[in-house]
Amino acid sequence: EAGVTQSPTHLIKTRGQQATLRCSPISGHTSVYWYQQALGLGLQFLLWYDEGEERNRGNFPPRFSGRQFPNYSSELNVNALELEDSALYLCASRAGTYNSPLHFGNGTRLTVT
Amino acid sequence: RKEVEQDPGPFNVPEGATVAFNCTYSNSASQSFFWYRQDCRKEPKLLMSVYSSGNEDGRFTAQLNRASQYISLLIRDSKLSDSATYLCVVPRDGNKLIFGAGTRLAVHP
Description:
heterodimer, A: mainly beta, seven-stranded mixed β-sheet, four-stranded antiparallel β-sheet, 0% helix, B: mainly beta, six-stranded mixed β-sheet, five-stranded antiparallel β-sheet, 11 strands, 55% strand
């Protein structure tokens, strides 16, 4: 069974540009979560999608947005990039059950110069 | 008080030692908990779920103390390969999963 896949692995952008990160969940998983992990810091909750809808978001500005497609894959968009957006962006999927754990992809390392 | 708190460590232990980490949480309504391990610059990997009755998986034991609002992870007979950062995960509002900042473990020969 394929795990969570993310693309691209690395992304280099300049300040002010937009970045699009992609995630495909484990087959059968309907929930997708996005986290940001800046260097040396913990995982910060960004967004949660389930059944195509945004269900919850963390304390991030509106320039962080995303969507979930009918096949449950997801996109994270970051507009007007700032230097401090440089981080590892992790996507995770989860089966619909309440007690099920998150399964992470390898992440996209975004560098803003 | 932070929503999820962990001692950042590092915990430096010799091979074969037993080491324990705690993770405290503030939301008393939290129901399901998890421990993950994260190696440097890699994605977190599920170590174990934490059940209310406590659970064991080989050298690893997880416990939940609802009264004091903490979960614990015990590692017996530490191996060099156990060196990593251990993250606890606590749910909020049902499905929003909040990660602790992690506890670093360094096992030395």
